[in-house]
Design goal:
Uracil-DNA Glycosylase, subunit E, alpha/beta, two-stranded antiparallel ribbon
Length: 211
């Protein structure tokens, strides 16, 4: 597919939509790239692939790609687990322009608005059935074309909302969590939510109502 609005192409694992370890093709949605240079098509692929390259010197930007697999596994993962995880996933940064060189710099209102057409192209191309949104601000700024989805619940009755977003072949089940780099974030808190959301998404995609 030829993208009209996407500047930084999504990373698509070699097994994406072929092997689905968690039951559905999954898109991990990040917020933005933080760099001093303009975005270019392969930047997302370079950072994801670089994060799982054996023996590469550790850099701070790799942390998000190291921590995210553990959300699904329930704790810190080893390099081989991370490599297998990303081979079955797609990853895309929502904002399609550099926000700046500092990770705490926030996207502007215009950046959020400008990101919508590119996001629609990516979702229609990849057709994920589950989208995990990393970050509360990103969740709040998703396109208004999404609609409420089934609530996601834990065993204690606590609820969080989900959204449904058209993907060209139905609806993707969209669920958001706090960004893994945020203060106080833990697997203990967020893994149960993602597990519950996946269960609800699978049930929804099968045509049933989420519990």
């Amino acid at each position: 597919m030829r993208f009209e609005h996407v500047k930084a192409l999504p990373f698509v694992g070699e097994s994406y939509n072929k092997e689905t370890p968690w039951g559905l093709p999954i898109l991990i949605l990040g917020e933005a790239h933080y760099t001093t240079i303009p975005l270019y098509p392969e930047i997302t692929n370079e950072v994801v692939e670089g994060s799982v390259t054996p023996d590469r010197k550790w850099e701070s930007w790799m942390m998000i790609f190291a921590k995210t697999p553990g959300i699904f596994h329930g704790g810190w993962t080893d390099p081989e687990q991370r490599r297998r995880f990303w081979s079955s996933m797609a990853f895309y940064n929502y904002v399609q322009e550099s926000v700046g060189s500092e990770a705490r710099t926030r996207p502007t209102e215009e950046m959020w608005k400008n990101a919508v057409p590119a996001f629609e192209e990516v979702v229609n191309h990849l057709q994920p059935r589950f989208i995990l949104v990393l970050g509360n601000e990103l969740w709040k700024n998703l396109p208004k074309t999404s609609k409420p989805g089934p609530p996601v619940s834990l065993s204690d009755g606590e609820l969080r909302e989900s959204r449904l977003y058209p993907n060209g072949a139905g609806d993707a089940f969209v669920f958001g969590i706090a960004h893994p780099s945020s203060i106080g974030w833990s697997y203990k808190k967020w893994t149960p939510w993602v597990q519950a959301a996946l269960k609800a998404a699978i049930q929804f995609q099968k045509g049933g109502k989420a519990a």
